Amino acid sequence: MAMEGTISAEHLVKVYDGKIRAVDDVSFEVKAGEVFGFLGPNGAGKTTTVSMLSAGLRPTSGRAVIDGLEVGADPEEVKRRIGVIFQETTADGDLTGLENLEIAAGCYGIPVAEGRARAKVLIEQMQLTEAADRYAKTYSGGMRRRLELAVGLVHNPRVLFLDEPTLGLDPQGRAGFWDFIQKLKKENGMTVFVTTHYLDEADGMCDRIAIIDHGKIVATGTPNELKDRVGGDVVTLKTGTGAAEITTLLQGLPGVHSIQHTDGSYRAKVQSGETFVPLAVDTATRAGVGVTGVTVKRPSLDEVFLDFTGREYREEEGPNATDRAVMMNRVRGALRR
Amino acid sequence: MLRELAALTRREYLKLARNPQAIFTSLLLPLLYLLLFGQGFHISLTSFSLPGAPPPTPATIAAFNLAYFRGAPDYYSYFAAGMVGFVAVTATLFIGANVIFDKLFGIFKRTRGTPAPSAAVFGSRLIAGATQPIAYAFFVLGLALVFAHVPGLAGLTVTAPITVVSVLEIVVAIVLLSLMFATLFLTFGILLEVPQTYFAAVNLLNLPVLLTSDALYPWGSMPQWLRNVSQYNPVSLAVNVIRETLFGSSAYPYGPGIYLLGLLAWTVVLIGIAIFFVRRALRPLE
What we know:
The structure holds two protein chains of two kinds.
Chain A: E1 7-16, E2 20-30, E3 35-39, H1 46-53, E4 61-66, E5 69-70, H2 75-81, E6 82-85, H3 97-107, H4 112-125, H5 141-153, E7 159-163, H6 171-188, E8 191-196, H7 199-205, E9 208-213, E10 216-221, H8 223-230, E11 233-239, H9 247-251, E12 256-262, E13 265-270, H10 273-286, E14 291-297, H11 301-309, H12 321-336
Parallel strand pairs in A: 3-8, 3-9, 6-7, 7-8
Antiparallel strand pairs in A: 1-2, 1-4, 4-5, 9-10, 11-13, 11-14, 12-13
Helix pairs in contact in A: 3-4, 3-5, 5-6, 8-11
Chain B: H1 2-17, H2 20-40, H3 58-69, H4 75-90, H5 95-104, H6 107-112, H7 118-147, H8 164-191, H9 195-211, H10 224-230, H11 234-247, H12 256-281
């Protein structure tokens, strides 16, 4: 019983084409009733991980246990216990919202009358009552995401997987969607596993976060724990290009944890930004380096990401090697057939 | 399993009902064949009579019809029965394409994300996919019968006594032929990912299957080798049943039951092959 609603990934590995390690030895635990964020840029391995956890993809090695059941041993039973909201739209545009839900309920073996009743409740909960009898293809982006969520909840799952659920939504749509998720957590105690590349979403909505990059988990913790690990304030000093290197000088100032020098700027993790800035500007000026700009920030998840991966976080990245490999794999598969 | 099958079948019928254009265009093809192709090729022994020559005797006409049209009274009647088989095949051509488009639009992924068994996923599409050709086949049969009563048009003339059993034989032949080709093309749709590959494969198969049958050619004008090939063709087997039922059995070496058995064997074999491939393609974990 202690396993109810939990998610466990143990050394999950997925290798495409025998050489592309899309997911590389990923392990974590999600407690029942938790909203767990899986944060990473496009192509980091988030969707592949969700596919392995939600009985859609066989791992190359490792194992996943959902709600006490090993995914590889009984994938169909796992599918009964989980809801999955895919990254792409999967509701049938030629059916009405209500029909989409009724048919989804039937796919879980729910009797017709019960499925219809459940569909009506969900339509109401998702504020789609007015549009219930309209074809899904006439829905706005936000309405379609809410319909997707309703479809994923039609069988009362214990665990809900959301793969980039707010992709393509405007800020208002994203906020509205997250309100529903928070409500679900509060009212049903459902375990929610959500992948996102929006840092603000992960920061504000998740109880705990795992940061994944290049298929590996680089950090796990609550948003505050992760920020605390970065420590103090983050000060960025902009200098002219070609200016002399002053990393060593800055490093010697009091309260400095670390200094990174990139592209004509210095990023310093310091005890106190207020104390550090005048000293740093003075030091730079004495060394003949003009300071053209200064920013002081409390650490955000951007900083956390930068700290753990050594590079800036970009929300919109093009297809990476994994995506290309998967695409090529599909094309080759199709040609072989 | 039954609930999942019922839900998914309902979806297929809802989609079909919401696309009347597809139904209309599917009916247009056999209609054009019946109205143009069949009328243009409509021949009987009297078509060949020279001016001034004595008209052929009923015995000569009967012998000609037996040799050329396997007992049908004229080409149009022979052809109309063949068109029933032709339509049962052509109406199944796009059933697999719908699966591919559902994959491209993410709808198939949703279904695969549920615990609905692969038999329900396949079966629902097969039921809905086979219903259309069955309906179209009876539409062709009915229309050809009506044409026989329209002045200036050739139509289907039935010369054998129709009984409940013979009607049932026609129904079983059409159902088996439709099921068989629906299974085949649906399997293509499940296995393939790209629409162009699907259409290329279907076209590659469709023409040889139809052109090695005796659905459209007069039996008497077919070379022996083509007759030999066509006797194993499932379309010919179904058409034989229909023609025997409508025009009598004297031109056929076997009764309808044997042809139905042959058709059943084809259907069972194809369904067996489909189960093998579809179970692999739709296994719970990819």
